[in-house]
Design a protein that fits this description.
alpha+beta; Alpha-Beta Plaits; 4-stranded antiparallel sheet; 4 helices; globular
Length: about 110
């Protein structure tokens, strides 16, 4: 199956569903206010090996097609406190000034398939 992220269309999925269009999108989550950055870094890299971006020593963006904020917290083990504490928020929009690699990552991960 070939997925063309540049145009937000998954031709293979469309074909498999008999021409019905599919709206699959990635949710981007912001993880911040972290109490144990080293432990959380290991967990984020394990759970989101290809879907995370470090914004600094204790801030990350992660993306998932099927998780909620709570699911992310459970997966990186902050819900029970094993990896410390953090705040996780799903992004609904964004604006700001940052390096190009951040905007490019957000654009790539936030595309609808």
């Amino acid at each position: 199956m070939i997925v063309d992220l540049a145009y937000g269309y998954a031709g293979g999925i469309d074909h498999m569903l008999g021409g019905n269009k599919v709206n699959l999108s990635m949710t981007i989550f912001v993880i911040f206010n972290v109490s144990n950055p080293q432990s959380l870094k290991v967990a984020i890299e394990r759970v989101f090996p290809n879907d995370h971006l470090s914004l600094g020593a204790s801030e990350w963006l992660v993306s998932s097609a099927s998780m909620t904020s709570r699911d992310v917290g459970d997966a990186i083990e902050i819900s029970e406190g094993k990896n410390g504490t953090a705040i996780i928020m799903a992004m609904a929009g964004y604006w700001g000034r940052a390096s190009n690699n951040i905007w490019e990552w957000i654009a790539a991960k936030g595309k609808t398939l």
